[in-house]
Specification:
The structure holds two protein chains of two kinds. By secondary structure, chain A is mainly alpha-helical. Helices cover about 75% and strands about 0% of the residues of chain A. In chain A, β1 and β2 form a beta hairpin. Chain B is an alpha+beta fold. In chain B, β12 and β13 form a beta hairpin. Helix content of chain B is about 25%, strand content about 35%. The chains are: A mainly alpha, B alpha+beta. At the A-B interface, α8 and α9 of A face β6 and α2 of B.
Chain lengths: ~290, ~375
């Protein structure tokens, strides 16, 4: 009986093995090689029957502070933008859950409506809004709030705007799912026991929506760390993120092994906090 | 005059989109320490009334006073009431002890006092060994007791119980009735129970109010309401009953004599009020008050006869369905203490039945 169950699980795992694990191993292999002229532009791992693996690329990553700064920058941007998504997304998800039931589906649809338009076009649209002679500056000057255009583009502000705007739906949906499950009787019980609504929010609503908070935060934090398009289009010299470093190593320097090492290091940096969070979450459930 | 502990005065509540008022002019006075039950079918407004006492709904009209204090402007978190929810509404992320301590923490009681009171309460509901568990790890009966402990620990002036036993299985439900009554007597807090189960209301409460379509149909001690229902609705809701359409023949010294075509006989029933001859009324008699015999008994003031159409053995008692000459079906309940009485009955058999004058009730409406 149970082999059938494995049979059902086989195709997705085979898919993941083929298109995630194998490419990762290839990247890992490249990261241990040296740059070389030719196609492919790196030295083979096995040559003349001996293993040619070196950690030189990783040593280089550790020695040049540019990489450490890019990593930290990425994590800082991603973490701050995740917090921004949470601060905007939580009230939004809460309002949708509390809306009259006939409105709820329409409101949810509005959250995912931006997906109908290409992500790239939406990021370009922000350039039009934020540039010095763009829509926002024009309006601010017209109403006399400012006299010279504000610098809204190619700085960390525009990167945050782009990150939070683009990833907000991925935060709202898991939060909605978690808040929707919350039994309204629990808030009534809290009130009945002498708890003011503002306190009940922190004592009951937030702890019980924690799975949604964690899921939403992971869902936006991880891709934000590796984000390339948004900092590339909206960012400037001060917003160097690891995705951009990776791109440069790969396409500009054609240093595939170093680019591969950057990618592997990023993955390790991201997997560690996830393992930690997973342990926290399953621990919660078990307790 | 009013020394009553809880006063509900002309309370009306109408929900938008609803044709009729959910609660339509309810007035009740409940004394301190009473165990009071609101009984009625679903949708009769009993839960809405309870929720107004807790402060979750606001009355459109009327007043609610607890110990003389008008509750209109008092939000739920400031009311001297606590509620035990039908779904229990236990906080799933807190342990049993944390759930019970929640209300005391809101009042900022000293830590030592909280620990002591939580422990005493868990002892009272016999849950001390489970203090560290989370609600997800408890059985239905255990959750029910946590909910009771959590609502009681703040020693409210009024404890509201919303269908507290509905989620339990039958055996546990019957045991728990006694336990809740025992706890109520011990703590001396006024209990207000809402239920659709007439047995639950009658066995636990010292007084019950039967509600129908937002209005109070009758208030009184369980035996009064059961034995002397005010109308057909109350009579039928509190248990099985036989009803006969009848016409008053004459009234004399506390006894009404009636003629009933449905019963195919003249009936006589004790009734304090004299009734005008010719008035159409309903005579009601409970199945367990019927006397059965294989021969007519001239001593019975109300004597009918019919044929046994159905027999149902229920353990402690048996139900007998009897068809009268008019085609009317009656139900009689006989105790199974005497096995011969039941053995003497057979399907299709001709049977004589009767009841005493004080066993019947005349319903004027």
């Amino acid at each position: 009986m149970s082999w059938r169950r494995y049979l059902v699980a086989l195709p997705p795992y085979a898919w993941l093995a083929l298109f995630f694990l194998v490419p990762f191993l290839i990247v890992l292999k490249i990261s241990l090689a040296d740059q070389a002229m030719g196609i492919p532009p790196y030295t083979p791992l096995l040559a003349d029957g001996t293993l040619h693996a070196s950690g030189a690329n990783y040593q280089f990553l550790a020695s040049d502070s540019l990489y450490a700064r890019a990593y930290l920058n990425s994590i800082w941007f991603a973490a701050s933008a995740t917090l921004g998504c949470l601060l905007i997304g939580y009230p939004l998800a809460y309002a949708i859950v509390r809306a009259p039931s006939r409105w709820r589906n329409a409101l949810l649809l509005l959250v995912i409506l931006p997906f109908w338009t290409s992500f790239l076009i939406r990021v370009y649209a922000w350039i039009g809004l934020l540039k010095s002679n763009g829509f926002i500056n024009n309006v601010l000057i017209d109403i006399g709030l400012v006299h010279t255009p504000l610098t809204l583009l190619n700085n960390s502000f525009s990167v945050y705007v782009g990150l939070i705007y683009s990833y907000l739906p991925y935060m709202v949906l898991p939060l909605y799912a978690a808040l929707e499950k919350l039994d309204p009787a629990l808030l009534e019980a809290a009130a009945d026991l002498g708890c003011r609504p503002s306190r009940a929010f922190w004592r009951v609503t937030v702890p019980l929506s924690m799975p949604g908070i964690v899921a939403g935060a992971l869902l936006v934090f991880i891709p934000m760390c590796g984000e390339f398009v948004i900092p590339d289009l909206l960012g400037g010299p001060s917003t160097l993120m690891i995705g951009h470093v990776l791109w440069d190593e790969f396409f500009t320097n054609r240093d595939w092994p170093l680019a591969a090492a950057v990618a592997v290091a990023m993955l390790v940096l991201l997997v560690l906090p996830m393992v930690f969070l997973r342990r926290y979450l399953t621990g919660e459930e078990r307790a | 005059m009013s020394t009553a502990h809880l006063i509900i005065e002309g309370v009306v509540k109408r929900f938008p989109d609803a044709a009729a008022a959910a609660v339509d002019g309810v007035t009740l006075e409940i004394g301190a320490g009473e165990f009071f039950a609101l009984l009625g079918p679903s949708g009769c407004g009993k839960t809405t009334l309870l929720r107004m006492l807790a402060g979750f709904e606001r009355p459109d009209r009327g007043r609610i006073l607890i110990d003389g204090q008008d509750m209109a402007a008092v939000p739920p978190y400031a009311r001297p009431t606590n509620m035990m929810f039908q779904s229990y509404a236990l906080f799933p992320h807190m342990t049993v002890a944390e759930n019970v301590a929640f209300g005391l923490k809101q009042d900022k009681r000293p830590r030592a006092e909280i620990a002591e009171r939580v422990k005493a309460m868990l002892d009272l509901v016999k849950l001390a060994p489970l203090a560290g568990r989370k609600p997800g790890q408890l059985s239905g009966g255990e959750k029910q007791r946590v909910a009771l402990a959590r609502a009681l620990v703040k020693e409210p002036k009024l404890l509201l119980l919303d269908e507290p036993l509905t989620a339990l299985d039958r055996k546990l439900r019957e045991e728990t009735r006694f336990e809740i009554v025992r706890i109520q007597q011990r703590v001396g807090i006024t209990f207000m129970l809402v239920t659709h189960d007439q047995e639950e209301a009658m066995s636990m409460a010292s007084r019950i109010a039967v509600m129908e379509r937002g209005k109070i149909a009758q208030v009184g001690p369980p035996a009064d309401v059961y034995e002397r229902p005010a109308n057909r609705f109350v009579a039928g809701f509190l248990g099985a009953i036989n009803l006969f359409a009848a016409r008053v023949a004459r009234s004399e010294s506390g006894v009404v004599h009636l003629q009933s075509d449905e019963a195919g006989a003249s009936l006589s029933v004790m009734h304090a009020k004299a009734l005008t001859p010719g008035t159409a009324v309903t005579v009601a008699v409970r199945p367990e008050k019927l006397l059965l015999g294989s021969t007519a008994n001239p001593a019975w003031p109300n004597a009918l006869s019919g044929a046994v159409r159905g027999l149902a053995y229920r353990g402690e008692a048996s139900d007998v369905e009897i068809e009268l000459a008019s085609g009317k079906l009656m139900r009689a309940t006989i105790a199974n203490a005497d096995p011969q009485a039941r053995a003497a009955l057979a399907l299709g058999q001709r049977i004589f039945l009767g009841w005493r004058r004080e066993a019947g009730v005349v319903l004027e409406s």
